[in-house]
Amino acid sequence: MNRVFVSIGPITIYWYSLLILIAVLLGYQLAIHYCKKIGYKTSSIVDMVLGIVIWAIIGARVYYVIFNFSSYQDNLLEIFMIWKGGLAIYGAVLAAVFYIYYYCKRHELHFIKVLDIFSLSLLLGQAIGRWGNFFNSEAYGGKTTYEALKNLRIPEFIIQGMYIDGYYRHPTFLYESLWCLVGVLILVGIRKKYSNQTGKQVCFYLIWYGVGRFFIEGLRSDSLYIGSLRVSQLVSIVFVLVGVVGNIIIRRKNKVPYKEIGGENGRI
């Protein structure tokens, strides 16, 4: 695949970068829309977004480099060339969560509620961002056949894009993108039905994405490892466990409506 979206003189814009930008902008708009819908002031979210984006990118790169350092040890400057790919979503999520926690503590905001607000944005962003892997010819699965992919009704341009190193590959980027899109639709329903249960949305995200990523990761041929164990599968298990335990706690204790937690003015 051609990684370049457009080149104008010395300026080159890559598909990967463009898709990340689109994901961020749509995620931002979703978060703002949700804040307005439930009657909260959006100023805190606006101030927070830039920091989230910066730390998410740093976290995604650091995570990837740590578990794939052998690819960079002979040329350390390549660590900073993120436009070539090599961002791990789990690193982005973890770094963003730590930053959100720091921001919430500093500005006296409700940490779990803020995670709820961003959960849908994150899931949609992941669905979009995975297509950057397609254009970079990365994050693909093991060997398969043209017939197998055709039987899955995968579009021809994707099948041809998955012909890498002389073999057809499973488009695991597509599997994950579709899994996230389905999760977006379910999460929209959860927001309507359980809007008074703080933490319900982020717990769903942890469980849904964790389960999907665990199985999809098993198909990938470029996983990051600790010994013989796939790092992303281990993190996926942790995500699911945290989501399940959190959901149990919510059912027992969290019955307080958002507006009551937010205070008189609905401020987060």
Describe the structure concisely.
The chain has about 270 residues and is mainly alpha-helical. It has helices at about 15-35, 45-65, 90-105, 110-135, 145-150, 155-160, 170-195, 200-215, 230-255, 260, and strands spanning about 5-10, 10-15, 145, 165, 165-170, 225, 230.
* Structural category: mainly alpha
Helix content: 55-70%
Distance between the termini: 44 Å
Order of helices and strands: EEHHHHEHHEEHHEEHH
Unreliable stretches (pLDDT < 50, length at least 5) are 258-268
Strand content: 5-15%
Strand count, sense and barrel status of the largest sheet are: 3 strands, antiparallel
Individual helix count:
10
3D shape:
globular
Quantity of strands, as a count: 7
Strand order of the largest sheet: 3-5-4
Mean pLDDT over the residues: 89
Radius of gyration: 19 Å
Task: Give a verbal description of the structure.
With 268 residues, the chain is mainly alpha-helical. Strands 3-5-4 form a 3-stranded antiparallel β-sheet. A two-stranded antiparallel sheet has the order 1-2. Helix 1 packs antiparallel against helix 4. The C terminus is likely disordered.
